[in-house]
Amino acid sequence: MRTILTALLIFTGILTVNAQTADSLYLMPQPQSVKLQTGRFVFTPQFTIGIEGPASPKLIAAANRFYQQAAKRTGIYFPQEYITAADNKTEAQLSIRYNKTIAPQIGMDESYKLSVTSSKIILTANTDIGALRGLETLYQLIMPFNSGYYCPVAEIADSPRFKWRGIMIDVARHFIPMDVLKRNIDAMAEVKMNVLHLHLSDDEGFRVESKVYPRLQQQGSNGLYYTQDEIKSMVAYAHNRGIIVIPEFDLPGHCTSILAGYPFLASYTANYKPAKRFNLDTVKNLNLMNMMKLINEIQTPTIDPTKESTYAFFDQFLKEMSGLFPDAYLHVGADENNGAAWKNNPSIVAFMKAKGIKNTDELQAYFVKRMYAIAKKYNKRLIGWEEAFNPALPADVIVQKWKPSAPDDKLVSNIIQHNNQVVVSSGYYLDMSLPAYIHYLNDPVPANVSPADADKGILGAEGAMWSELVSAENEEIRVWPRAAAIAERMWSAANVKDADDMYRRLWMADFEINDRGLQEDNNYTKMITRWVNGADIAPVQTLTGICAPVKGYRRLMAGMFTPVPVTTHPNLASPMVNIADAIKCDSKLRWQFRKIVGSYLTNHREADLEQVKAQLQLWKDNEIKFNALAIDAPYLQQITDLSNNLSAAGEIGLQALKGERNKDELMKQLKQMEKPSHEVELTVLPEIEALITGKLSDDPASYPLF
User: Fold this and answer.
1) How far apart, in Å, are the Cα atoms of 101 and each of 109, 124, 299?
2) Is the pLDDT of residue 21 over 70?
3) Taking a C-beta distance cutoff of 8 angstroms, is the pair 237, 186 a contact?
4) Angle at alpha carbon of residue 441, lines to 440 and 446, rounded to 5°
5) pTM of the full predicted structure?
6) CB 58 within 8 A of CB 76
7) Angle, CA of 665, 435 and 465, to the nearest 5°
8) Which of 310, 213, 192 is nearest to 252 (CA)?
9) What is the predicted pLDDT for the residue at 565?
10) What mean pLDDT is predicted for residues 469-487?
């Protein structure tokens, strides 16, 4: 097996012998300009760092992180115990030079230049945060060779395409502990992201300590929330890595957890407690059409926007939160409010009539404008999801685009023409379990928006990780490494869009991010090891390594439509420990297998054929090992059908190569395996189909939502 894997890695470029061409580097995001030259800077025990610039604690900390991690990577004991501002000797082998220190903010100068010669590395930047970005690129340049580690001689000039490059993490549906958030911050910094957007409240939970309104966390969090000291520590942690933190408190809908503590804010009387927004468990004849109708018509917990006491409450609350979150932005959600709670309240209807408000859309616009005034009072720039956009929206409100849209959709263009700015999340929803290339090939700038309008109106983009099906244990598995592909789409030039090359670099970026502290790989291994009670997991890895969760929202919807006991539906206490929870959304092994199959079908090389056969044989033979392991592993017994399908698929591939059976019969048998089982799919079926047909089809350009 090790020989096969090594051959796969060499073939696909994961291992490299001589990295002296630009297409064999592993930089992610891809810099704007890379000019490689002949030669190497070789790391030795004499490697030192010097810093020239004004005092910057965050750069000092970053330089020490780089130094320590480079020592771990190379295995070399470097001489400096701790780098300080006094270490400014020009003869240092790495000289970091910058002009000023700045606080992280949108629009900051993040540009840098790297000059690597055989004897010295010079990193120059206008700001200390630009120098931070350059250090991440420099670390990615470190490569092994037969007698040590080196950086190729190169000249790199780099700056981001977009100002706003972020991730939204929903910590309300399932609470995500602070240590997990900080590991995400580290990974974000490593791929040059600069915005962490925290979805801090929703129907299922309110996650921040309020000393002004303590019942918010006392009644709305089930005891799972961040203390104010934890928030301050996390914000400082992010700032030291050049990342701002944006809080979102979702209003006027999605607010059950708020109403649990302060029901006077509600549009109707009820016994509020943190819970799912829609309770569909007792609805008969539930299907997708009926569900969408219910979502549009059913009354859900909603803030009453007609009471002055509502705005007095949020004035004091946002004043308090502004002290915890010092960055210049505040997100108020303003999404998915169907207005039913307002229509059913006579006093709200009377208010609308008295104010000349024609419908609930206009009432929502009224609410957003009142929240805008409060945010402005505390020097915050308001952000809302796309439903917040309306003809009366103040021009300095940022609109976050999230809904999938047709190519001719004009919403982004209309927002820009209204002089508002946009952050794009449509196409970047990580909770949909789509492969990285789907996000990567989705440009934030719609085709119908001119370059001039894009420069003026599109700030950037955010990947979004909603947490209905995410827990503390698998959050990193779901976000990474796909978020790194999104980071490149936000940073690199628009014409950098070779998905195959992106994957070549993504696997190395994933290795480095995990090596530096992310728990994506460790948690994946821990979860599948639990199934076998600590026994050898190799047969399980053979299966899980080529599986992926079902795509879109089929899995989320399945719990609503399947006639099973309510206790088996995902809920706030769901452990998220099954195969669909543990596996990754992109299979590295599938990508490698696809490369070899494609090469074999194109070139008909014997070496490729032998690698394909070896992998198919491994899958075919795995069933016996898996079944033996399952004897004392109850969960494996539940998923033996998946293991059996993999074994059968391997056999089909071998038969196709031998020409032993009718192609139509093989195709019919293979097609039966395409149906998801246990909410997961075998990802290598298209490649095995190609062995039958002789033609490798392109991967889909899109996937359905349901």
Assistant:
1) 10, 13, 51
2) no
3) no
4) 115
5) 0.95
6) no
7) 140
8) 310
9) 41
10) 97
Residue 358's pLDDT band (cuts 50, 70, 90):
very high
Half-sphere exposure of 179 (CA within 13 A, CB side): 5
Q: How far apart are the first and last CA of the chain?
A: 37
Residue 488 one-letter amino acid: E
Q: Is 80 left (phi over 0), alpha (psi -120 to 50) or beta?
A: beta
- Active site amino acids: 336
In this structure, are residues 421 and 384 in contact, taking their beta carbons and an 8 Å threshold? no
Residue 101 CA, distance from chain mean position: 29
φ/ψ of 379, rounded to 5, equals 60, 35
From CA 457, how far away is CA 479, in angstroms rounded? 27
Q: Give the span between the Cα atoms of 574 and 590, in whole angstroms.
A: 30
∠ CA 16-20-26, nearest 5°, is 55
Residue 499 phi, psi (nearest 5)? -65, -35
Distance CA 169, CA 546 (A): 27
Judged against a pLDDT cut of 80, whether residue 8 lies above it is answered with no
Angle at 324 between CA 318 and CA 330, to 5 degrees: 50
pLDDT band at 234 (very low <50, low <70, confident <90, very high): very high
pLDDT score of 282: 61
The pLDDT tens digits for 647-685 are: 999 999 999 999 988 999 999 999 999 999 999 999 999
Q: In a 10 Å sphere around its CB, with 0-12 CB exposed, 13-18 middle and 19+ buried, how is residue 310 labelled?
A: buried
DSSP at 330 = E
Instruction: Inform me whether the pLDDT recorded for 523 exceeds 70.
Output: yes
- State pLDDT tens for residues 605-643: 999 999 999 999 999 999 999 999 999 999 999 999 999
Dist CA 472 CA 183 (whole Å): 12
Contacts of 584 (CB under 8 A, 6+ apart): 477, 520, 524, 548
Residue 275 exposure: Cα atoms within 13 Å on the Cβ side: 12
